[in-house]
Amino acid sequence: MNLFQKYGGSSFWSEFLNIYMQEFICSESLSHYCNEVEIDHIRRMAEGLMEVTFSSERKYSKDVLKGIHKNLRITNADFDEWIKIYRLVLKEIGISDEDSDTIVINIETYRNAIVSKS
Q1: pLDDT, tens digit, for every residue of 75-90?
Q2: Burial level of 13, CB count in 10 A (0-12/13-18/19+)?
Q3: Which residues pair with 117 in a beta bridge?
Q4: Which residues constitute the signal peptide according to the record (predicted)?
Q5: What count of Cα atoms within 13 Å lies in the side-chain half-sphere of residue 41?
Q6: Residue 3 lies in a domain
Q7: CA–CA gap between residue 14 and residue 32 (Å, rounded)
Q8: Per residue in 3-13, pLDDT tens?
Q9: In a domain, 1, yes or no
Q10: Within a domain: residue 2?
Q11: Can you give the residue range of the structural domain that contains 27?
Q12: Cβ(25)–Cβ(39) under 8 Å?
């Protein structure tokens, strides 16, 4: 069973994203990324990405991610804060430490495609 199904599929991960997005919006260092974009759109994109990433061996295209994020000027510190919040919410909703590590390791493989500013 893959991680997407293991924890309950779309409904579980949708709730995860609801909690995560609230934390993201409240983050002093990350909230400015939400000013010019539609949060529901980001949430839907993230849910689709999670489903593909957690439910198969397929990888999301780094070129596509780089194109989406290139003008956002995301720093390594921003990415680290994003991961920190992600880990806290994973723990809060009951993801095992082992599965949380697996998820974060997978996300880390996309750092170079998302971070565009030192």
Answers
A1: 999 999 999 999 999 9
A2: buried
A3: 75
A4: none
A5: 5
A6: no
A7: 23
A8: 888 998 888 99
A9: no
A10: no
A11: 8-114
A12: yes
